[in-house]
Amino acid sequence: MKASHRLLAVLVAAIWGVNFVVIEVGLRDLPPLVLTALRFVAAAVPLVFLVPRPSARLRYVLGYGLVLGVLKFGALFTALAAGMSAGLASLVLQAQALMSVLLAAAVLGERPARAQLVGVLVGSVGIGVLAVDSGGHATVIGFVLTLFAAASWAVANLIMRASGETRPLSLLVWSSLVPPLPLLGLAGVIDGPQSVLAAITGLSWRALLAVAYVAYVSTLVGFGIWNRLIARYSVTRVAPFSLLVPVFGISAAWLLLDERVGPTELAAAAIVLAGLTLVVRRSTADRDTVTAASESRGPGYAPAPTA
């Protein structure tokens, strides 16, 4: 991966790290599923009238919108509202990088190197430590929902890669039309129609600023760059760069929300980051040759599984 593209991946990690703090601020004025729905409304309109339709088939557009918008972000925002701290959520969500490597190997034939498999195991131990003792910064339901969000993100990465999309921004914008109605329907069932209507009609400036950040900065800029990198390279090479997200997320939560990090969380974070560092290491020479071949054949190409 080019140095300039690595810098872009780091920029995305910073954007997403701060995003957890912004979400917590937005949840002070809006129910989680309403905030999620407004995020995708703002991401889709008016850009859907300005960018061309995606080149990918409709099933990929619908699938990406449902998995990323409804499952991943619906679960994450609900987890934060249910007691998951912003800093801890930014760490646990990076289990998606571990899951992405395994799913990419199983579904797309992007075979991981031995060091990456070891990294998956090490990172899983760190997540397990957090599951046993989160220092009071997470509820059980919040932790489970965040892990579910991580798994959904891993599936969304695979959908993006398998779609062969040549216009990642178009896929992102047009797929953003999918989540709002399902999310608002779920919000009506969970919070009640009157609560949803009151939240939308009584938007505060704080809520509007939160929606603007998560829609335009986190979604359009962050996922726009992320999807372009995945389309150019591979899930296995791009997804692990999210290991930097908790560094920015925990720091932002500490600076802006005064969240304290206990020794157990620090130890677990170190284990997770150590595992993710192994995952992001360059593969063997044979693996690099296969990846280079896939890049030269275009974003829709994936190497066949090997025995």
Structural account:
The protein is mainly alpha-helical and 307 residues long. It has 15 helices and no strands. It is globular. 52% of the residues are buried. The C terminus is likely disordered.
Protein traits:
mainly alpha, 307 residues, 15 helices
Describe the secondary structure blueprint for this structure.
Blueprint: H1 3-26, H2 32-44, H3 58-81, H4 86-92, H5 95-108, H6 114-132, H7 140-163, H8 168-175, H9 180-191, H10 193-201, H11 205-232, H12 235-238, H13 245-256, H14 263-280, H15 285-296
Helix pairs in contact: 1-4, 1-11, 1-13, 2-3, 2-9, 2-11, 3-7, 3-8, 4-13, 5-6, 5-7, 6-14, 8-11, 9-10
Summarize the structure.
The chain contains 15 helices and no strands.
In DSSP terms, counting alpha (H) and pi (I) runs of 4 or more, how many helices?
A: 15
- General shape: globular
Order of helices and strands: HHHHHHHHHHHHHHH
**Could you tell me the number of beta strands?**
0
Euclidean distance between termini CA atoms = 26 Å
Radius of gyration: 19 Å
Task: Tell me about the largest β-sheet.
Answer: none
Overall average residue pLDDT? 82
Estimate percent helicity.
over 70%
SS content category: mainly alpha
Low-pLDDT runs of 5+ residues are 282-307
